[in-house]
Amino acid sequence: MTIASESSVAPAAVTTLGTEWWRSAVIYQIYPRSFADLTGDGVGDLPGITSRLDSLAALGVDAIWLSPFYTSPQKDAGYDVADYCDVDPLFGTLADFDAMQNRAHELGLRVIVDIVPNHTSDAHRWFQEAVASPAGSVERARYMFRDGKGESGEIAPNNWESVFGGPAWTRLVEPDGTPGQWYLHLFDSSQPDLDWENPWVREQFRAILRFWLDRGVDGFRVDVAHGMIKAPGLPDFTPAPGGSMGGSSAPAEGVSLEPGISDHSEDQPTAPFWAQDGVHEIYRDWHEVLAGYEGDRVLCAEAWVEPLTKLARWVRPDEMHQAFNFSYLETPFSGPALRRVIDESIAAFSGVGAPSTWVLSNHDVVRHASRLALTAENPQGAGIGPKSAGLPDTELGLRRARAASALMLSLPGSAYVYQGEELGLPEAIDLPDEARQDPTWFRTNGERYGRDGCRVPIPWEADSPAFGFNTTGASWLPQPAGWSVYARDAQAGVAGSTLELYTRILAARQEYDLGMGSVEWLDGFGEAVVAFRNGPVTVVSNTGRVPVELPLGSVLVASENVDGGILPPDTTVWLIGTE
Ligand code: NOJ
Predict the structure, then answer these.
(1) Residue-wise over 202-230: b if at least 16 C-beta within 10 A, else e?
(2) 3-state secondary structure 167-205
(3) What is the pTM of this model?
(4) Does the CB atom of residue 422 touch ligand 1 within 6 A?
(5) Distance in Å, CA 556 to ligand 1 centroid
(6) Residues 324-345: pLDDT tens digits?
């Protein structure tokens, strides 16, 4: 074992280390629809979250991020917001939010909420007013309305496609019943894009940020943080061969040379609706808003931007604090690809004084306990279902997921954990067609399964209705019958369970302060092995097919049994006391 090189966290951070909790935090994503349902109507709610927060404190996370719970027709599971400053009755009330946040803060958990600035719901008052007002009115100027092309405006203003499939433009029927202007929606037709060149829009969002900051939230996860500004003139765009319109499915931003290895160059064609320079001014403004508040309030960008050097622009010192590292999420469980993305991440983010983040799962991607064992290409956002090619072996998927999580959570920086991954939950593959709800499924006529499979309500109790999600047994997406084995109560205190592995990992991560550490690569284990030191801890992860001999040391964490000093395939170990 030889020390090869070192990647460390941002030297620029030194002045404020210790107070900036988010630099090393483990942040747990709650998807409110599917976390815990106190009312028993089959959809999770805020009181349900409050009732289960103790288990997250026991798990050892530092913060929670909640996907949207705002007033919404739920056409895109709440990412279609009709009132940014109220709670949808489906989830409770503002008082329920306050109670949830108070309890979280009592338990020492910070609270991050989602903000969705690229688009509103078509049920939002702003859009309703725009539709009721004439072309050219101030109300229409809040959104991206344009006249169509062709003799009677019957052709959409350009060729852009929605991330969810189909055209990105919908034509209005004017109040007098005649066909009218078109409006842009990068996502579903129920999600009209706002015009962020309009100062009025900017002012509204400053007020929305203040509303939640005044209520005490610790930060915001910013939806589609690379999409708010569009190129002047809204030019047509044809993605490079093999690319797509991108969006939550990225590649329009940077072309993958091979899975998990992004191109280093920055001269890839940029889609005219992603990553326009103008977005940065918005985040500088928001940074100022947050800086006006006490405490360490944070902004985290959901920006599907590659390469990482480009993504790092979102977290320059006067912009956001964190950005999801989707390049890491998209990296296969392969030694060379992982070493490279870890190096690139630390270099890119520390170059601007920001921590790297690490993430393997969320509500938009196939859960990593299934994804890491897929044997066929699966473009992000496509999802998997009964007819997908290359369906995963469940046992192998779980084994890889445990190894991948043990590796991710040993890295310096901040990590995101998606609800249920601490239980080893796989993707729900066999959802009946009639149960599916993702707009992607509908907009592609079932060609893409979409994201429902990672959004199924999570199991708490093996022998209760809906596995303890509620007491009535109702569930907005059906839970697979076999999920009792993943239930939290079936794993709590059980040696070797995935829940115990995560609990052990998070305790050790904190004890050795790995989040503020560094990566010191170790050579000599072979290509397929990722091995490094982070402070006193030696991490060795075997992504290959042959067992590997471990250095002498005591085992702190192991994703599988590592008897006899041998590290089997698809296993990660943390050691202390190595030479
Ligand atoms: C990203 C969110 O994570 C996803 O769930 C949503 O559909 C799109 N943005 C549109 O808001």
Answers:
(1) bebbeebbeebbeebbbbbbbbbbbbbbb
(2) ECEEEEECCCCCEEEEEECCCCCCCCEECCCCHHHHHHH
(3) 0.94
(4) no
(5) 38
(6) 999 999 999 999 999 999 999 9
